[in-house]
Amino acid sequence: MISNDNTEFRDLVSLTHGFAVILVEPQLGENVGMVARAMGNCGLWDLRLVGPRDGWPNSAAIAASSGADLIIHAARVFSSTAEAIADLQTVLAATARPRDMTTEVFTPREAAKRLRQDVVAGANAGVLFGKEAMGLDNDNVALANGVLSVPLNPKFTSLNLAQAVLLVGYEWFQTADRTPGEGLALSKETRPANKQEMLGLFEHLESELDICGFLRVKKKRPVMVRNIRNIFQRARLTEQEVRTLRGVVSGLANHSKKPLE
Amino acid sequence: MISNDNTEFRDLVSLTHGFAVILVEPQLGENVGMVARAMGNCGLWDLRLVGPRDGWPNSAAIAASSGADLIIHAARVFSSTAEAIADLQTVLAATARPRDMTTEVFTPREAAKRLRQDVVAGANAGVLFGKEAMGLDNDNVALANGVLSVPLNPKFTSLNLAQAVLLVGYEWFQTADRTPGEGLALSKETRPANKQEMLGLFEHLESELDICGFLRVKKKRPVMVRNIRNIFQRARLTEQEVRTLRGVVSGLANHSKKPLE
After folding, report:
1. pLDDT at B260 exceeding the cut of 90
2. Surface of A (47-66) touching B: CB under 8 A
3. Which of A40, B14, B83, B107 is the most exposed place for a label (fewest CB within 10 A)?
4. A166 and chain B in contact, CB less than 8 A
5. pLDDT tens by residue, B182-219
6. How far apart are CA A235 and CA A244, in angstroms?
7. Phi/psi class of residue B66: alpha, beta or left (left: φ > 0; alpha: ψ in -120 to 50)?
8. Under 8 Å between Cβ of A187 and B101
């Protein structure tokens, strides 16, 4: 659920300032609701509808929005695409169909980058999406600066409306997101092990392996020690995990020292 | 519709070799069908189901797959996650929920990059997705090399199953796709204008603007000429469009030369 707490709504507005989703003649209210949900996922709130077939407001849209009803309630209805985009400086038209028109074509990734640059420079941007079955007609495409096409399996390109909005919104969100591509999520109350702790583990393990005879071939010992150390170096251990592994080593070693019954 | 022509199916298989989508205890057949559709969009075909609640095969899944029924028919059912991933070398677990576990966390973009590297090197890869309402439990997460989390609006993260698969599949597809980020789509039977054609247009326009007196202030003429040239340089005109614009200039100029009636 999007909270209807005012502070959170303001945050959402500020995060997504300057990017409008314009649905041209959408048909099923349910699809508009699913678009709102996808917009909520991507932090977008500015939904504009041009001539929605089933009227507006639409209870099916609210039901399908899965909690993104703030977006549904804030949606604005226009009678023409030209009116819906009058205040926007940069508009792209989402379409999968090749057309016999000369126009710039952007991937969602490049489109998001360019639109973000425009918005940072003070512009308002938006993307036009056509009706479910037909997409946008050429007159609507000619209202836009260019075309946005999603590179997907050329043998099976049909995306539903909400999926198309999701992919565009996802790329838009990524242009402002700072999540590192990869990171180690740590469980609470621990931290990555330092090298003193790692060496403590290695020396503990190697001394037990000397005692049990696993490293008895002197010529092979240096290579085996390095190979075993590398296994644990790759695992990016936490301080807690080093202690756990030392417990494992002690447990196994002590067990083997017990007399057989 | 995905064609069931054998050649096309082989192309599809070769494009997507080595990447499996594993649904752990999916509930509604309809959602499995929508996952298959999203996989079709992204050129993926290896669908694996662990203990689907509503049984398999499932007619609701076929109906919801919107033509991706080849994927549905090729889906394999397993009784445990461990069996479903036995032949895979690299497996990530898709989850939105933060967990008190120490694990590597990847964005879909970085995950796709790493998995593609592994697959190019000969490995088989896959991503685990949990059941609709609950996601994956921690035991399933611990079967994976790491976690995949989609960076989206932290106030509204709930993605449906097919949307999560779509975003992961989309990133996977992008790692192999060669579509340029931006390009000019040309209408048939034309090509970009060359500079001789552009200069022809400029000189034609400027000579008519001299005749009609628009460029009469000599001091301002060079700046105005440059400004007007820049407008058309930015437009990336085709040879056809240059001819159209020269017709426009002639049309306007000749009209103004006609005596008023």
Report:
1. no
2. 66
3. B14
4. yes
5. 999 888 789 999 999 999 999 999 999 999 999 999 99
6. 14
7. left
8. yes
